[in-house]
Amino acid sequence: MSSAAEQETVQEGVRGEVLPGPLPAVGVNGRHRDTGARGPEVWPGAPTPLGARFRIGPDGVAGTNFALWAGGAEAVELCLFDEAGVETRLPLSELTHEIWHGFVPGVRPGQRYGFRVHGRWDPWTGARWNPAKLLLDPYARAVDGAPPHDYSALPAEVYGHVRDWPQQQVADTVRDDRDSAPYVPKGVVVHDDDDWADDRRPKTPWADSVIYELHVRGFTKVHPGIPEELRGTYAGLAHPAAIEHLVRLGVTAVELLPVHQYAHEDHLLRRGLRNYWGYNSIGYFAPHAAYSASGTTGQQVGEFKRMVRALHAAGIEVILDVVYNHTAEAGELGPTLSLRGIDNRGYYRLQSDARRYADYTGCGNTLHVVQPHVLRLITDSLRYWVTEMGVDGFRFDLAAALARSMHDVDMLSPFLAVIAQDPVLRRVKLIAEPWDVGNGGYQVGAFPPLWTEWNDRYRDAVRDFWRGALPDVRDLGYRLSGSSDLYAWGGRRPYASINFVTAHDGFTLRDLVSYEQKHNDANGEGNRDGTNDNRSWNCGAEGESDDAEINALRRRQLRNLLTTLLVSTGVPMLVAGDEMGRTQGGSNNAYCQDNEVSWLDWSLREQPGPRGLLELTTRLLALRHSHPVLRRRAFFSGRAREADGLRDLAWFTPHGTEMTERDWYAPASTVALYLSGRDIPGRDARGAEVTDDSFLAVLHAADRPTSFQLPGPPWAQAYELVVDTSREDQATAPGTVHRGGETVTVPPRSVLLLKVGHERSRAKTG
């Protein structure tokens, strides 16, 4: 029950309205433990490590050590749950540096648990302690009992305040004393297994990487080669049928949409929807339980590890998309699931009006990363996923929010400084989504060395070129050649640019050439959600079409976009299904569509058009892997060599002459770049000079064919055509050979990729 002081504070805020009844002494799922019975003994234990760790304690007794940082709390209870859901509460009386801890003999892996944290209820100062609410351990390594999918709304009991209070403007100030334990997920004690002796990390260099963004559930849900009971799970992604596609395609890393334990938002449940993408984290150490085929009382941990091992064995790295900028507790009207009830003021950024949250994420709250214990939570989580779960890197959602010091984005912020010096984290792949929704949050090109970045300027320039919207080609030139204007500082390299045309957020590649307007009505938000800045072109009709010419043009545009991406300097990122022309029906915000809208349609592989796109993607990736000139580790200089006047990078007009400064400022629908394989900086592992073939790429975005004079000597004596996107059949290279200086016809809206050869290569001239 609330103390007199608490009651007085609440009554002041709600003008004396009646509060819900007091919390029973102990009650779970309608069951009550006999309060006179004696619970397990609690020994002092240790304040480190945080979380629940099974170990051998004093006198060889096996048990679990529990430790929870709860700054400002007055008391902490450990709550243990048996198989019937009956709760036993044990006070943690030891307090060391704001960490409450205790060792409980006999508690073994599989034990479900949570915490109740006592303290003041004073929302006006940011204090929101409420022991009626069972709280998930922030360090829980497995989570069980998440709300079932048949909930039509979050139960009112999971809110620390009275959610349905008549006066909504003060509802967050009224404490709800009903027990939340039956309705919230519990942590699970997990047995540590650090045996990675049989695991071999691929350790693919950044310059050689090709990233494939996928959703564990969506990629495997309807795959015909995966047993039905494994579809939608970590085990499904580990299945040979799933891995075979990745290996055959030629990607080097999968970037998994969030797999941290996450929660569904109330507004989605009320519309009969669910969070699909997973950007609503609540457990930073726990693999999302719904993706487990083997169980949710710890089995999900082992299943995730086996998935990582299987991918590693196939030479594929595992990168996690992580959401440390906010949690599923949302703003002041959100549920109380974990951090809010442990220490609201310590974990979250609050406004000067401490009832309100600083929101740089658009999701209601922002983690207070400058606080040492919050920074520790994040870095402990990151190290755990690397050292104990085997992952190879991270893509940080809204990374600019993590780089904020007090208010402004600061590239010397505590978060970035800690990452830079950490002996584990500085060695893995680090990808920033370099923006957030706050003032000054757009930081593309600003992150320090060690970091790569999603380069949305690349996305926009390539989309604009192929839809005919570029006023000139200056920006496109930078993007195709590695974005040196953004990244050639502080020792950064071309692979600092993660090049992408599409991502999970936005149109698929097929929808990019089929829709000009978003079609998000299925989300139930009146089509107001999702961006309006799609930079797309529907090729003459909105949505699916029976017009053969429109469909042929769309297939060609898909080939153009993919070819442009895979011959550009930088690290390419593909989205699962784009290599087969997957559609979302025009949705550019399918975050809540856990259905056929988002699941990969594997039948596309058997259809002629999608199969041709898949064959082209496979050929282009094989070409990229074979030619270091397409995977440069240093920026182009653009300087002419004294001996023959050749440059490592040169740009040509359709007349076969090098572009002048005037050409860069003029509108152009045809751009050609020459990549010299004789001028690749650096040496191989044995110290030898790296040399390669040279290539000429001609990008032509106009709707009519154009004549193009191939540069002659000294640039090339002959050229072999290896890619022509105007062709429907992409299983093999065209193989046509042309002389240097020869004029060729470039088909409308197409890419020609030619490999530089010599006169003796002209036997197949066509």
Automatic annotation (TrEMBL):
<feature type="region of interest" description="Disordered">
    <location>
        <begin position="1"/>
        <end position="45"/>
    </location>
</feature>
<dbReference type="GO" id="GO:0005980">
    <property type="term" value="P:glycogen catabolic process"/>
</dbReference>
<feature type="compositionally biased region" description="Basic and acidic residues">
    <location>
        <begin position="520"/>
        <end position="532"/>
    </location>
</feature>
<comment type="similarity">
    <text>Belongs to the glycosyl hydrolase 13 family.</text>
</comment>
<dbReference type="Pfam" id="PF02922">
    <property type="entry name" value="CBM_48"/>
</dbReference>
<dbReference type="InterPro" id="IPR006047">
    <property type="entry name" value="GH13_cat_dom"/>
</dbReference>
<feature type="domain" description="Glycosyl hydrolase family 13 catalytic">
    <location>
        <begin position="213"/>
        <end position="624"/>
    </location>
</feature>
<feature type="compositionally biased region" description="Polar residues">
    <location>
        <begin position="1"/>
        <end position="10"/>
    </location>
</feature>
<dbReference type="InterPro" id="IPR013780">
    <property type="entry name" value="Glyco_hydro_b"/>
</dbReference>
<keyword id="KW-0378">Hydrolase</keyword>
<dbReference type="GO" id="GO:0004135">
    <property type="term" value="F:amylo-alpha-1,6-glucosidase activity"/>
</dbReference>
<dbReference type="InterPro" id="IPR011837">
    <property type="entry name" value="Glycogen_debranch_GlgX"/>
</dbReference>
<dbReference type="InterPro" id="IPR017853">
    <property type="entry name" value="GH"/>
</dbReference>
<dbReference type="Pfam" id="PF00128">
    <property type="entry name" value="Alpha-amylase"/>
</dbReference>
<keyword id="KW-0326">Glycosidase</keyword>
<feature type="region of interest" description="Disordered">
    <location>
        <begin position="520"/>
        <end position="541"/>
    </location>
</feature>
<dbReference type="InterPro" id="IPR004193">
    <property type="entry name" value="Glyco_hydro_13_N"/>
</dbReference>
<dbReference type="InterPro" id="IPR014756">
    <property type="entry name" value="Ig_E-set"/>
</dbReference>
<protein>
    <submittedName>
        <fullName>Glycogen debranching enzyme GlgX</fullName>
    </submittedName>
</protein>
<dbReference type="InterPro" id="IPR013783">
    <property type="entry name" value="Ig-like_fold"/>
</dbReference>
<dbReference type="InterPro" id="IPR044505">
    <property type="entry name" value="GlgX_Isoamylase_N_E_set"/>
</dbReference>
